Amino acid sequence: NYRFVHGDICDTALVEEVFASEKPWAVVNLAAESHVDRSISDMTPFLHTNVLGLHNLLDASRSHDVKRFLQISTDEVYGDSAAGVVNNEDACLAPGNPYSASKASADLICQAFARTFDLPVLIIRSTNNFGPNQYPEKLIPVLILSTMKGNPLPLYGDGRQERDWIYVGDAVRAIKLVVTEGQIGSIYNICTGVHHTNYEIAIQICNSLADVMGVD
C-alpha cells in the first residue's frame, strides 16, 4: 500500500507532483548524505541534499498543509561528548565535521520554519543505527565484511572512540511513535544509553563470526 518514486528531493517539480498527487498528512525526511569521510572529501553533495533538499520539502509541506513534518537528524550535531555522557535535547549544537554541520543547519532551518510559518515540525536526533542491508561503508558492515574476507579491520587510532548503537527496528518504532504522538515543536533523542568503543565492537564481531564459522 505505497507508491515508490525514484527521484531527488532537490527536484522541485517532482516534489510538487508527489505532494499534489499523494496529499500526505505527514512527511518523514530520512533523505540525507550521511558518511562523515565523504563529507570531508567534498561537502557539496551534503549541502545539496541535507540543506537545499530539506528546504524544498519544507516549502512543499507548507504549501500543502502537511500536519506533521518529522526531520530525522543525528546526535552528531552535539559534537564530541565526554565518555559515557548522553546529551539531552537542550544541549548546544557543536557539529565537528561537514556532515554534522549540514545536519545541524537542517535542524535550525526546520525550527525557523516552525517559528516563522507555524509549520508543525518535530525533530529526531538518533545515535548510530545498525541492521540488515546497511550500506557497506558504515562501521559494522565494514568490520563484518573485512573479518569474513580475512582483511585487517579498519579502526581509527586505538579504536577507543565510544558510540551508542541502536538497532534499526527499534529506531523505526521510535520514528512511528514520534510522528503519530510526538508533541509539535519538540526534539527527541533516540539512543540506548549504552556506549561501546569501536574496538569492543570489532572484538564482538570477530567472536560472533568465529562461532558461526567454527573457527578459533
User: How helix-rich are the residues, as a percent range?
Assistant: 40-55%
Q: Which parts are unreliable, with pLDDT below 50 for 5 consecutive residues or more?
A: none
Count all strands and give the number. Answer: 7
Question: Which series of helices and strands comes N to C?
Answer: HEHHEHEEHEHEEH
- Report the radius of gyration as a whole number of Å: 19 Å
Structural category is alpha/beta
Strand order of the largest sheet: 1-2-3-6
| Oligomeric description of these chains | single chain
- State the helix count: 7
Distance between the termini: 47 Å
Q: How much strand content do the residues show?
A: 15-25%
Would you summarize the structure shown here?
The chain has 216 residues and is an alpha/beta fold.
Task: List descriptors.
about 220 residues, four-stranded parallel β-sheet, three-stranded mixed β-sheet, 7 helices, 7 strands, about 45% helix
